[in-house]
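Weekly structure sync, notes
Attendees: PL (lead), two postdocs, one rotation student
Agenda item 3: pending single-chain targets
PL asked that the sequence for the first pending target be pasted directly into the notes so everyone works from the same version. It is reproduced below exactly as submitted, 686 residues in total.
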Amino acid sequence: MSIRTLSSTSTVDDFVVEPEDQDGSPDLPAPSGHESLLAQARSRQRLSLRELLAKPLLRQALGLDLLRRLKHGDSSLALVVAAPSPAWVAPLSEAPKDLAFQGLWVISPSERLHRPEEQLQRAEEAAKALAKGVTVAGVAADPARELSKVLLAAADATVIVPAPDAALVEQAIRAFSRKGRSVALSARDLAGLDWMDYYAAFRLGSTRQAIAARLARAAGARTGVTFAEDAPPLETLTGYGEARTWAEHIVREVEDRRAGRAAGSALESAILAGLPGTGKTTLAQALAKAAGLQLVTTSVASWFSASDGHLGAVVKEQKRFFADLRTMRPCVGFIDELDALPSRASLSGSSNGDFWAPVITGMLLGIDALRQACPDVVLIAATNFLDRVDPALRRPGRFDRLIEIAPPDVEGLTNILRAHLKGDLAEADLSLVAQLLLGRVGADVVQVVNSARRRARLTGRALTLDDLIAEASPSDPRSPAELKACAIHEAGHAVAAVALGRTLQGVSLQLSGASGGMTRMEHPGFIPTRAVIENNVVIGLAGRAADLVLGAGASAGAVGDLALATRELSALHASYGLGDRLLHRGGVDDASALLRVDSGFARCIEADLQRLMNRAITLVTAHRAAVLAVAEALIVHRVLSGTQVQALMEAYPPSMARIDDIPASTTGTGCADPFDGSLGEITLPG
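Predicted structure, written out during the meeting:
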């Protein structure tokens, strides 16, 4: 935006700024007989703000070509102007009249276009305006919903007007007030401000500092708008896999847009799914920080807490979130706990359906309108339960990517520990601590580090590795006999996994809820055969086999293993077509349900379980020395890596038949993945 210096005045775009003095505000016209001085002051203020903010914004958004066509009186020009918010529609509707050389027809938005009679009336209005041979401009905050389809189809261009940036507002303050020194504003000072906030802040007679202070105060009162200065750098986040790669691509695309190197297509959106504490919010914050964008957050819970909970008030809060995104673009919009919005399938026949249907529909339409009108907004949602999210939300075009953030592996946990230790214990080997935390999420790591620091502080000394180990592996209430039983059980899983060619990540005796231990291994592949599935079952049953062969006998501690084995074998026969029949009787959950109603099917699964249990017993017996060695090491160290288990098995080779001699089923060719189609890890709870 250029500023030309004249002999006694200076021009900013099309408005005149008088030379500065120290006395006060611009002179007001003398009051007429029917106007009070206050009314004239308000009129002058409104005109000034339109000139200072709305008109320069529109000029910038139009660009040189459209601005030239307006000024030259192009009677064939039809425009759609997308305002930052509904409050900006009125001032932006006045601004084109000053920019056009001759007649201009401005079409205002309508909230009632869902009514047939309103649609017809607005279509006739647009058609008549276009036929009159004058420039036509439709101005709306949500053109796709508030302007006639006739105008949208006929428009030569859609002009997206952003909210004013700090440079423009600083210039407007200098032009509006001659009192005080110039002010410097930041994006934080203007975050979430709407037209009426500017209107309330720009008061005649105010100093520049007073106007700036009002704006900053209004911005600070906005909820849901945050800045990510305290977020960790994106490049330091570990254990995020595909999610971090996606975030880095978005940051590069935002930078390309700023440099004018990117096309105008919408920035990709994503749903981040994962267990609580896997860092979904942290990733959104780090992305916003790396991209230099404001973060606008919301949730279904916030819509209720900010309103009286009635349907109209909740929908109003939902609309305010999308309006904030349009006002603050470019920005990052973050919807937390997306699964709090129920899937419409779950509402079938429910008395709550009438309430939730408009809220869900409002979300769908809000996302559609936002992504069409604001391609520079990065929309992210987070959920702990992806299967509960309405399928219409999960589809590309609304949320383009569904990215799972799994619990970090040992390397990821080690890096998270390093990041939160902030230089402490720089020379220490943190691999043991990471192994102890295997299966836990980033939030758990933060809690362990904080607790370890507290432990050291309360004893008046520096943090040590032992503090971390103590917090990662708290005192165990189990008796020596119980620990030994759990160790033998987990050792059976771990040795069977390695013996059957699986990549073992680790085995632990850590208590976790009702589980007394855990064995983690890599997923065997996308399309396993019957042999692969049955090997999964053998590994799952090997814990019980170790209890029988080397421990005190079978116990109820193997209930999770039996449930997994039964589920996998039921799916093998009833879902995957890998048994004796090709008949598909339903999905995995339906297959398990058949056990309760089909006694013949239950006998078939029981026969498979008994056969594979015998394989597990044979395998554990062959590797009994290795199982006992692994169990003893677990009692001492609480956790072992896959490499350590492999080393113990090499030191204690099988004493009976080789694994190759143990029979495995060769029936079936394989057709589906029993683990929901995603590579990752298999976790067997103890």
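Discussion points:
- The mean pLDDT is 83.
- The chain has five domains: 35-160, 166-222, 226-404, 410-472, 480-685.
Action: rotation student to compare against the earlier draft before next sync.
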